[in-house]
Amino acid sequence: QTYLDRIARLNPDINAYITVAPEKSLAQAKAADARIAAGQTTALTGIPLAQKDIFCAQGWRTTCGSKMLDNFVSPYDATVIERLNTAGAVILGKTNMDEFAMGSSNETSYFGAVKNPWDRDRVSGGSSGGSAAAVAARLAPAATATDTGGSIRQPAALCGLTGLKPTYGVVSRYGMIAYASSLDQGGPMARSAEDCALLLDAMAGFDPRDSTSLERPADDYLRDLERPLAGLRIGLPKEFFGEGCDAAVMASIEAAIAEYRKLGAETVEVSLPNMKLSVPAYYVIAPAEASSNLSRYDGVRYGYRAPEYADLNDMYAKTRAQGFGDEVKRRILIGTYVLSHGYYDAYYLQAQRIRRLIADDFRTAFKQCDVIMGPTSPTTAFKLGEKIDDPVQMYLFDIFTLGVNLAGLPGMSVPCGLVDGLPVGLQLIGDYFSEARLLNVAHRYQ
Length: 446
Ligand code: GLN
Prior knowledge:
Elements: H1 2-14, E1 17-19, H2 22-37, E2 48-52, H3 79-86, E3 90-95, E4 115-116, E5 119-123, H4 129-136, E6 142-146, H5 153-158, E7 162-165, E8 186-190, H6 193-203, E9 233-237, H7 247-262, E10 266-270, H8 278-293, H9 312-323, H10 326-339, H11 344-365, E11 371-375, H12 391-396, H13 402-407, E12 411-419, E13 422-430, H14 435-445
Parallel strand pairs: 2-3, 9-10, 9-11
Antiparallel strand pairs: 1-3, 4-5, 6-8, 7-8, 7-12, 11-13, 12-13
Bound molecules: glutamine.
Glutamine (GLN) binds next to loops.
């Protein structure tokens, strides 16, 4: 009730939530009380959580930030929702996001931009900007989010939070509305690495309903939290420390690394020579997959349908013209273009080759170090409206986060100070399945 009251008071301005349904949340909370009284508790029993509106939740409106799904009430739970509900967590509401998770500032949402609680003239980051603003404004203690090219790490950085994008395949994508299926991965966003570990423990695990879910024994993400960092080898890619990052942000990153040296870590220079190609490769592959995934929104089975049309083709055309926003249309056009006959080899296949090179760069780097560190984003939160008319500038803002998704690796963002009163995020990148180690490295610093 305390959180619901705070949401009622602050959300009209911050716009972190698209949907709240107090009666549903309170009913779940009462059920959690009963479980506690019966002694059937987990670490998450009764903990209220903000759920990104990309996760289908039974009986909840699930919009994915789009007019296309404005009227969609999900008939089933995503695996992530089901697991958190089973652990006894309470859904506080569904959070705002860029339309179909396409964006870096939460300004492409059909439901309006989210304001950064640290400075309400600035963006909260994207695409999980609603989840980040909700936790930063204390409208939820923790949240779920998804990361296709940085959407957990970047909003966490811009709002002063800890966020973790797991290894591809660790968290089920079942019921998580698809953007770019080979890159999409759900994960937690919270105030600390320890809280992220508690959430990930409940969220992760094999799911036969997701064909890319990995069948491996459950990890214990809390196991290593207190492990000393003596001897930890930190790789510093020279491409992260050259041009392209704001000097004051870089000073905060350097200060954090100095702190790690005091904790017993050593640093080694590594190289990710193909990193600069991650922006063009990602912005070919992600739109290609999106153009295929979004073909399901045709006005026939669910979601928006244009009210007036002449025939079936006209219904498809008008539904999609009216239901999708500009950025989504741009991605569908780019995606169908790079997949079309005559361009497929030149763009799509070439991007896939670059993807392999980027994964190989990380493989080489992890022979020399245990964890890679650098900035999450090149600047602190920018002003609302500053980049929205310049898609290339917006895409370039993702330079430090995209490689992790192309390679399928786990990555985190950890708060590491303020520049002019705005939070800076330190990015940690680990080898496949090193989530427990990353959480440990983040926790010891916090
Ligand atoms: N900013 C990137 C994009 O627009 C990443 C978004 C995401 O991770 N969902 O595609």
